[in-house]
Amino acid sequence: MLYHHVDRIWEAPKRARGPHPVNVGGYGAVAALRDPLSTLLGHVEKVSAEAGDQPEDWRERMVVERND
Fold first, then answer.
1. 10 lies in a domain?
2. Are 37 and 2 in contact (CB under 8 A)?
3. Does 56 map to a domain?
4. Longest dimension (CA), the chain
5. Which stretches of the chain score pLDDT less than 50?
6. Number of structural domains the chain divides into
7. Residue of 10, 13, 40, 57 with fewest CB within 10 Å of its CB?
8. How far apart are CA 66 and CA 68, in angstroms?
9. Helical H runs in 16-68?
10. Tell me: the pLDDT tens digits for 33-48?
């Protein structure tokens, strides 16, 4: 999921015991993506729960087929 990928990028400096991402140059774009994606994900989960959907019903499944 895109949000989780962006969140891992955001958290990487903290895991490396480096400076907070806000203090790292270039991380403004990551924050600009992370916050709205978090909000969007929250809305999706809320609407899905209200509709009675189960997460496995609406998650995309990827199928990889081998071409020989």
1. yes
2. yes
3. no
4. 49
5. none
6. 1
7. 57
8. 6
9. 28-51, 55-58
10. 888 888 888 888 888 7
- Name the token pair of 57: 């019903």
Q: Specify the amino acid at residue 50.
A: E
- Cβ distance 31 to 3 under 8 Å? no
Q: Residue 49 has which token pair? A: 């729960």
pTM exceeds 0.85: no
d(CA 24, CA 60): 33
User: Does residue 65 fall inside a structural domain?
Assistant: no
Joined together, the tokens standing for residue 27 give 């991380």
Q: Decide: residue 61, CB within 10 A, 0-12 exposed, 13-18 middle, 19+ buried.
A: exposed
Determine which helix (DSSP H) or strand (DSSP E) holds 66, and give its type and residue range: none
